[in-house]
């Protein structure tokens, strides 16, 4: 990135860059709900599978 040039990222790289932070946010929200009297993490773990599956699918859609 010389002379003020901006590097272009592919959609696949962009999706991979946000996957881990969004999964961590999802885990944090699940623990917050558990702590505040909502559904426990043991009951809401399928949400993690749904979120991870959504990101996995988006990576494969953008890689084409």
What would you say this structure looks like, in words?
It is elongated and about 50 Å long. It has one domain. It has helices spanning 11-35, 41-62. The chain has 64 residues and is an all-alpha fold.
Q: What's the rounded overall pLDDT mean?
A: 78
Count of helical stretches = 2
The secondary structure category is mainly alpha
Name the overall outline.
Answer: elongated
Q: Roughly what fraction of the amino acids lie in strands? A: under 5%
Helical amount? over 70%
Order of helices and strands: HH
Indicate the multimeric state: single chain
How many domains? The number is 1
Biggest sheet architecture: none
Query: Ranges with pLDDT <50 over ≥5 residues?
Result: none
Distance between the termini: 26 Å
Radius of gyration: 16 Å
- Find the count of extended strands (DSSP E, 2+ residues): 0
Mind sketching the topology for me?
Blueprint: H1 11-35, H2 41-62
Attribute tags:
single chain, mainly alpha
Task: Put the structure in a nutshell.
This protein has 64 residues and is an all-alpha fold. It has two helices and no strands.
